[in-house]
Fold:
Amino acid sequence: MKLSGLNHNQLDAVKSIDGSVAVIAGAGSGKTRTLTYRIANMIESGIDPKTILAVTFTNKAAKEMKERVVDLVGPSGFAPIISTFHSFCARFIRDEVDYLGEPYNRHFLIMDEDDSKQVIRDSVKELNLDPNRYSSNRLKDYFSKVKNGQYDQLDFEDEKVFNRYNEYLKQNNAMDFDDLLNFTVKLLKDNPGLLEKYQTYYQFILIDEFQDTNIIQYELVRLLGAKHKNVFIVGDPDQSIYGFRGANYENYTYFLNDFKPKVIVLDENYRSTMNVLNAANKLISNNRNRKTIKNLKSELGEGTKVIQEVRESDKDEAYFVARAIEIVVNNGAMFKDIAVLYRSNAIGRIFEEAFLKYNIPYVIYGGISFFARKEIKDILSYIRLALFSHDNISLKRVINTPRRKIGNVTISKLETFAQIHKISMYDALDRLNVTGQTRDALLSFKSVIETLKKEINTVYDLTQVVDVALRVSGYEEMLRQEGNEGKDRYDNIMELKSIFYNGATDYKGTNLEKIEQILDDLALKTDVDLIEDRNTVKLATIHQVKGLEFKVVFMVAMEESIFPSDIMGSFTEIEEERRVCYVGVTRAKERLILSHAKQRFRFGQIQYNSPSRFLEEMNIEEKEAPRIIVRKEEPQVDFVEDDIKVGDQVFHEKYGKGVVVMKNEDITRVAFSIQFGLKLFTTGHQALKKIKTAN
Structure:
């Protein structure tokens, strides 16, 4: 095996076999290459490959590492244990399950996330607790945080569910993901002979993506590596962005204290040009609690200057990005080379709309389309059912969301009854021959829809439709009980207000007619997820693309209260937000475009956010090389403030120029181009601007 392809620091990390080593591997610095070459070099140096344990976080990463080692050294590369933390622990427990005692045996069941949530729901039911208050999503998140050491305790009622949940797992010879880690650590701590056995067996331990380890995972590393102290970690504290999942930023400090390692810094970046790296280096230098200082460098040249773009509104920003993508693609890039990154999922909605309008193929990376999210479809189903009570599909979707104790058997009976009597399921709600609690639940649901119908008919501002549906349906209270996950889903629903706000001017007719048109339009937009063309722009949160790279990266909505988030306040939280931004910047290989808007319609109101502090910290130069130039769609015309009269020329942002052909106290009718035809507006509507004409 030749090592000539490694740089000086990589070579140092590969050859430093004895003793502990901490490799601080900057973004794009060849981390995986260094790790796999080290394992291969250890094997070629005569170390028994069976005594090598390498642990990472994903099955994909583990598979890639093993394949690379085998390519380097041949069949002996299959011998080391290269796996994820959870896979290693599952194997360990199956081998040593007798130490756990009854009722566990080596054929225990590993519960996935959905299985665990179902057990939690069953536990809540057994304890006669309100399933809306004790949601499985919230409790699963809390239980996991307790098990991995983030929380010390639960409140009394939650703890009852927690205990019942764990009792069920034990009674059924089952474990969840967190149990695999905890039981492994417990067995090693409680059984000195067992600990000695594994400490002796695994003489060399390697940990990938060390910055993502939590408290329990580090304790496992500490226990296994305590005897030989041949522990090799590789990672980048500057890319520690999973604190919300339990990753412990202080684990690196613990490692330095416990193992006194040799520290090697990989700062040669093989991904990005220097203009991108300079922005990243300036940004992260503002974090005061950095474990090891490094500045990324590259031999790929200066590259294109980083662009900082400010637009008048969020719609204008989305238009800018869409048009800029068209220009970049026309200049030779492919759609798959481009990523549009943002801090939270709700931001992506307006970019989806722009990409649909300009026929830019895209995919929501690591997630689903905004319009296909469960919470969005649920709220739209409530609204649709209130307007169209014969809509059986919408009824079946929401009749038990939030939970109303209307089970699948009852729903099946309801559907059969409706089919036999040739009526809608909604009309069958009070006619189905059921009694007691089931009948009360069906009538209660019908009452919810009737109330929703009445309130929607009385709203003046269409954005209120979303608020009404949330409140009357009980969905808002359900999300409140779900904790952090519920907040994210609530934020997504609030973004629907922007759709209804735009519909107030984009569509004609009564409010109910406008709502119908909005719903139809949204139904068509959800079909975009059927696009399977792999040559697509990636829309994603920054957390979803850690480890990936793109030739062109747009980082959008770079505004205070969005990025950094308005819920971030402490020193620790701000530093993690800055690390998230750093990860986003370092995804770019050739071009980085940072954008923000002066005003943004968000959560039902216009916000005026200042530019993100991170933009100033990157200190992007004002004097830039030739850049992407995208002009606004508005024509070069002057507007006047005079009252609009019949015969006046007017301008609308979406429809362009038009002529007023009718006006009374309530309605103004405007004739636009053949493409758009006649449109009706409320008289005095701000969307219409009178064009100044020559005298």
Summary: The first strand starts at residue 21 and ends at 25.
